[in-house]
C-alpha cells in the first residue's frame, strides 16, 4: 500500500502470538485487532485488550486459516502481523493462504534457518563466511582443520544464544558435540570464528526499501550471551556506512519488503559479516533503547506504516540522546539477599527477574540472566556510565 492511500475507516489486522505493545499500538491508531493466541495455553491478559480474541494451534496453518478465513470474508484483514519469534512463520503462512500482502513465507523461513540463509549469502558473495553442516564430531573436526582456527557450532534455527559453542580445534570436536546435543541443539551448523566487535542493526522496510534506524554496540559474555547494549554505536562512520550497505544488500537478497528487522553483525578485519537476522524488533529491550535514544516507536510503525496511517522513515534518524542496558549476572546459587541502589535523579529503571529463594543458573542463554538496568544519558557514553554505575551497586547475594 502506498503511503497516504485511502484505507477503510476502521482497518483490521490479525495479530498472532503478539506482544501487548503491538495490540496497544494498533488500537491507538484506530486499527481493529483480532488477537490469535495458542489454543494449548490460557489466553494471555492482552487478549482482553483486542477487539476479538481467538484460540488456535499456532503451528497448524490449516487450523489458523480455518479460524481466520470467515472473519476475513466478513471484513477483510489488511495484514497478519507478529513481533514474536514463535508467531512470525505462522503469520506469514496464514497471510499467504489469505492472499494478503506482507513478507513472504519464503523470506521468513530463510531468516529462521541460519543454514539456508548462509548458503544464500555465500552463493551471492554477500559477506561470505566459511560454513558447513556437520553430521557428526568427525565432520566437525574436519571443518576445524579446513579453517585452520576455531569455529562456532550452533543450531540452524536457534534463538537466545542457546546451544552456541566455540570449538577451539579438532581435538575438542567430540566434547563440544556432546555439549551441543545436551543443550538441545538441533540441525547443527558450523562456521568459521569471526573475530571483532559484535553489533546489531535495527532497520525498517517499506515497499522493499530498507532504512537503518540504529546500530547498537553489544557486550557479549560467556556462552555468547549478550550482557549489554548501547546506542548509538561508537564505531567510525565509514564502518557504519559499510555495515548499513551490507545489511541493505542482505535484506534485498532474502526478499524482505516491509516492517522491522534485527540483524546481528560481526565487524571483522575483512569487513562486516552477517551473523543472523529476524523480521522483528530486537529483543533485550532494544525497542526501549530506540525510544530513549531516537524517540522512535517501532511498534507503532509496524502497525501503522503498511496501512498508510504513519509515514515510514525515509532516512536514518539522528540520535537525540544515548541509551544503554546492562544485564545482571550474579554468581550461580540460591538468592539469599538483594539490595538495590536508589535511582532518584536518573532516567534509569532496574528490573529483577529473580527474588530471594530463587535459583540463579550459570549463564548459558538469555533466559539465565537475573535482570537488567536500563538508562539514557546525554550521549552513548553517558548512558553506559549511568547504567554500569547502577549495575555495580545492585547486590544479588547467592550461595550454594
Protein architecture, described:
The termini are far apart. This protein has helices at 20-28, 61-74, 85-98, 105-111, 114-124, 137-147, 173-182, 237-254, 286-294, 298-304, 380-393; strands spanning 12-16, 32-38, 52-56, 79-81, 131-132, 151-155, 165-167, 188-192, 198-206, 209-220, 226-231, 259-268, 271-278, 322-328, 333-339, 349-352, 359-360, 371-377, 395-399. The strands form 4 sheets. An 8-stranded antiparallel beta sheet has the order 13-12-9-10-11-14-18-16, with helices on both faces. It has a 4-stranded parallel beta sheet with strand order 3-2-1-4, sandwiched between helices. A 4-stranded antiparallel beta sheet has the order 5-8-6-7, sandwiched between helices. 31% of the residues lie in helices and 28% in strands. The model has no long low-confidence stretch (mean pLDDT 95). The protein has 11 helices and 19 strands. It is of the alpha+beta class and 400 residues long.
Which tags fit this structure?
single chain, 400 residues, alpha+beta, Rossmann fold, Dna Ligase, domain 1, D-amino Acid Aminotransferase, Chain A, domain 1, 4 domains, eight-stranded antiparallel beta sheet, four-stranded parallel beta sheet, 19 strands, 31% helix
Number of strands: 19
Classification by helices and strands:
alpha+beta
Question: What is the CATH superfamily label of the largest domain?
Answer: ATP-grasp fold, B domain
Radius of gyration: 22 Å
CATH architectural arrangement of the largest domain: 2-Layer Sandwich
* Share in helix: 25-40%
Number of helices: 11
CATH class of the largest domain: Alpha Beta
Rough outline: globular
SSE string: EHEEHEHHHEHEEHEEEEHEEHHEEEEEHE
Spatially, the strands of the biggest sheet line up as: 13-12-9-10-11-14-18-16
Task: Quote the distance from N terminus to C terminus.
Answer: 58 Å
Catalogue the unreliable spans: none
Task: Estimate what percentage of residues fall within beta strands.
Answer: 25-35%
Largest sheet data: 8 strands, antiparallel
